[in-house]
Structures are given as structure tokens and as C-alpha cells.
Amino acid sequence: MDKHSDITLPGGATTTLHVAGTEATSAPFVLVMPAMGVPAGYYGPFVDELARHGLAAGVADYTGQDESLPHVGRGRDLGYDDLAHGWLPAVVDAVRRQHDGPVVALGHSLGGHVLAAHLAGPTPAVDAAVLIGSGTPHWRAQQGVKTLAQTQLIAVISRLCGFWPGARLGFGGTQAVTLMREWAAFSRTGRLAPGGRNIASELAERTLPLLVVDLDNDTLAPPAAVDELVELFASADVERFTFTKAADAPGKAVNHYSFARSPEIIGERIAAWVTGRVGERARP
């Protein structure tokens, strides 16, 4: 995975797109959308594995995360809308300046929420989608009252501090107060509502190919939580599988994060789906 380009985002922040893969500009391009607090570089082995199977692929940090400057913090705020309708279109635009083929967004965990918010908008920037280890944080689909208490405490601390100090507290990295407030509201109500707008009806009308990958032993996106998120994509053409490994299979045991560093098997399966669904074609 190599540095591709620096991108100026809405509001003046910057991020860096890292890419790997074929020089054929008509091949599908998979854009990885990270989980909360996970730097883009963590997905390097997964991006490289997709490239080994004939795709172009890339990843970039969200606004204010890791290589993206300035970092979020007190006085530097953003929410789901900023990522869904600011960061994502800017990154896809940078991809399309060098790439004629279809773009597939792959949302991991929080990345799936951002992708859902984007696809509820009027002009989606991508041609197909993959959700991997991504479910609603709704407390009823997670660990019940424990999840409810934890997420609402995070919202309170974020409001008091002006940001979420997750890098110090051991969860999610440093995050913007509005994003954590909206995420906590999603957990409390079960409704994804960027900027206070319930996007369920708009998202339900979106038609596109969607691959959903459940991860074995995933305590952060259990099947019930994935079910709730997938239900929002009522008009999508959905395929779904659960990724497991035999005890003697290569690489790390499967969990919420392992595929990013140990992409054996799963990278090939996702690449096969992308190739089969969107193929190699130029955008009109």
C-alpha cells in the first residue's frame, strides 16, 4: 500500500489516500472506511490482499483522525453528516480523478454507519457497498442495559470535555463531541439520525448491490446488531455470509478487527463478490 494523494476536505482539513492494486483504471476500486478510532494504516494488509486478487483498493483517515489534520478536539467538531457528505465525497472524487471503474465503499463498524448516512443522501458517490463487522449500536441489539449505560456515559463525558478523550480512556480514540452524541443517540433510540434527521425512509429507497459480512466471535457487531443495520437497506440487493475459520486455517482467529491485519481467505471472498457484481467497466 502506497501513498497516493493528499486530499483537501471541506472546511480545510486534509487527509491522505493510500492505495494498492492494478494499474487498469477500469477495474473496481474498493475504498475502506475505518472503524471508530482505527487509523487507516491498520488496514494496509487487507488493502494489499484485495489488490492481490485483481482489484484496486485504498483507505484514508476520517477528518481529524491520525494523518488527517487538524485533529478533532475541543473547538474542532464534526458529526456523521460531515463524514458522510463531506469526507466521503471528497475521497471518492480523488479516486475518480485517477480511476474510471466502479467504486465500492467498504464500511467497517462505524464506517458502515457513515456509509448508510451517505447512501441516504440524494447523490451517492459509490456504485456498491460492503458492510463488514458493522451493526447498529442499539442497546437492545447489543449487551442490553450495559451498552445503554456505557454509550450514554460516553456522551456525557464528551459534552463535559468538548470532545471524547478515548485515546486516554481506552475506547474509540479521540472523537468529536457531535459524532459521539449522535452515536450515543443511535444506541439509545435505534435510529440513525445525523443532524437530528431520521434517515430510515431515504435509505430504504436506495437500490444498489450490498454485501454484508458477519465476523465470527464479533462482540462489537453481534448478529442481532447487524440484522438491525441491514434492515435499513430495504431496497438493496443484499448478499450476506458469516466469516469463520477452521482452527488450522492460516492467520489469526476471527474477531471484530482481525481481518484488517490477517486478510487471508476473506480478502479473496470479498474480491470475488466485487468482481462478480460490478465487474470491470467505466462509468458513463
From TrEMBL:
Coiled coil (UniProt feature): none
Keywords assigned by UniProt, alphabetized: Hydrolase
Pfam families with a match to the protein in the record: Hydrolase_4 (PF12146)
Gene3D superfamilies with a match to the protein in the record: alpha/beta hydrolase (3.40.50.1820)
GO molecular function per UniProt: hydrolase activity
InterPro entries attached to this UniProt entry: AB_hydrolase_fold, Hydrolase_4, UCP037442_abhydr
Domain Serine aminopeptidase S33, chain residue ranges per copy: 30-140
Entry keyword Hydrolase: yes
SUPFAM superfamilies: alpha/beta-Hydrolases (SSF53474)
Protein name in UniProt: Alpha/beta hydrolase
Annotated organism of origin: Janibacter hoylei PVAS-1
Species lineage: Bacteria, Bacillati, Actinomycetota, Actinomycetes, Micrococcales
